[in-house]
Amino acid sequence: MKRHSKSVRWMMAAMLVVSILYTISSCLQRWPSAMVSYNQMLTETSTRALLPMCLILLFVGSCQPTALLLARRSTRSIFATNLAWLVLVVAGCTLIGTAVFGVTMPLVYGPKVLQGMPHMLLVLAVRVFMMCLSVSLVAVLVVTLGVRWPVAVAVLLAVFTLGNWVLTAFAGTVSRYLYFFWYPIGDDWPVVVVNQVVPFVGFLIVVVAADLFAFSRFDHLEG
């Protein structure tokens, strides 16, 4: 993990706490049904709270392949370390979001929601995982190509956080593609797998390959 000043660490810790508290407060808000809360979790809460938390943690822990570091470790080794940290962060954010949603729903809507909760939580976890992982991989690629972390994080958060609000006039048509891998198009597994998981796997292969190629060319890009 990279070293940061004490003030920066405190600021990041505060932002993480705010993200978690925002997730809790959003999930405690009562909507007409638990399914509406579920949709809000995917299209608004996750992009406003879980995604910022994910990108901040990714920024804190990722290794930048400087000349000094490259003299001691290969680019593939650094990339593998960053990828492991990325997966750990994504899994942690997914677990936090799913756990908060699972705990708060019975408190808001009563025990009646428990019957369909396991299936709902599993689909939610898959979609949040795909959200965090896809955006994080794009962030890593953009940073490796020369964009500074703060700029990359700010732009990505602006796009995905404000996207649903800005695109409301399009009745979900555009936001459906902006949030392609986690948009609530249906909760049946065949629908989720065919329309989101399979395209996500293809996207994952392409972006990881692009990340690895850009990482291996980092010294040339710097020059």
What features would you describe in this structure?
- 31% of the residues are buried.
- 79% of the residues lie in helices and 0% in strands.
- The radius of gyration is 18 Å and the shape is globular.
- It has one domain (6-222).
- It contains nine helices and no strands.
- The chain has helices at residues 6-27, 34-61, 67-72, 75-109, 117-144, 149-166, 173-178, 189-216, 218-222.
- It starts with 5 loop residues before the first helix and ends with a helix.
- α2 packs parallel to α5 and α5 (117-144) packs across α6.
- The model has no long low-confidence stretch (mean pLDDT 83).
- The chain has 223 residues and is an all-alpha fold.
- The longest helix is centred in the middle third of the chain and has 35 residues, at 75-109.
Outline, from the CA principal axes?
Answer: globular
How many DSSP helices? 9
Mean pLDDT: 83
Query: How would you spell out the order of helices and strands?
Result: HHHHHHHHH
- Structural class determined from secondary elements: mainly alpha
The biggest beta sheet is recorded as: none
Number of domain modules: 1
Fraction of helical residues: over 70%
Uncertain stretches: none
% residues in beta strands: under 5%
Number of E strands: 0
The separation of the N and C termini measures 25 Å
Keywords: Membrane, Transmembrane, Transmembrane helix
Transmembrane segments: 49-71, 83-109, 121-144, 151-172, 192-215
